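Figure S4 source data
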Amino acid sequence: MKKLRSVLIVLALAVVLAVAAVLAYVLPRHAVVNINGHEVKRVDRDGHVVDGRNPVTGVTRDVFFLYASDPVKKEIHVYRNEDTGFGFPWYFKFDSAEVQGRAQLIEADNTVQGVRPYALVTYYGWRIPMFSLFPNAVDVRTWDRPETPFPVFNTVFLSLLVLLIVVVWWRIRRWRKGRAPA
């Protein structure tokens, strides 16, 4: 019985870690950056850039990239800007060209006025250089201050998720107590 309980605890921890990893990947985040450049690259089905070392072998697509820097820490950020369509995660993003256009306007304001305007990039995903993974920019807009906004959606979503888990746990516990012999 003790061994079964420890196995169940390990499985529950594995499920919690897996759910936490998925949520950390798909929940939107914000970054206040300066837009420094943009580019369009042709990639194959696996997401690898098509070039002389990787010739075209089948279906390809264009992927927009945004190059940005953190105005305070001076760190470099690279975002891909690609439609999600109806695929997971369900952002239903079909406007990557418009997002790229807004980013180019923000960058052009920098070159014309000589002032580096802030841009708020809403994105999901991780940057993993070893696998050439870039976070996907969902939205780009001008921003008037270097502070990142409070993540209201994430806070409400995670609060509701915790509340749901507590209610389910409480119901299961009540059900098990009702079934226990007196």
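Figure S5 source data
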Amino acid sequence: IDKMYDEGLLSNHRIFWQVAKVCRSLQSGQLTHKTITEMIYVPETVADGVYWLNLQVAAWQLNAAPSNPVIWPIT
């Protein structure tokens, strides 16, 4: 999704959030509830597997916000 790989056009961002190429602001019906988590650190002590995820995102009206991903193993 990184804009570095599409010459700054944000093509992948527009596809992910279903925003038209010429659009400069959000319209009704666009997928504003989707998020992307990058640069997450998972310690080596966490076993591979399937987990429940509670992605706690700050309620900031910005294009980027910190999050706190919390996982629980599904048993």
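The first strand starts at residue 51 and ends at 57. Residues 51 and 73 are 4 Å apart (CA to CA).
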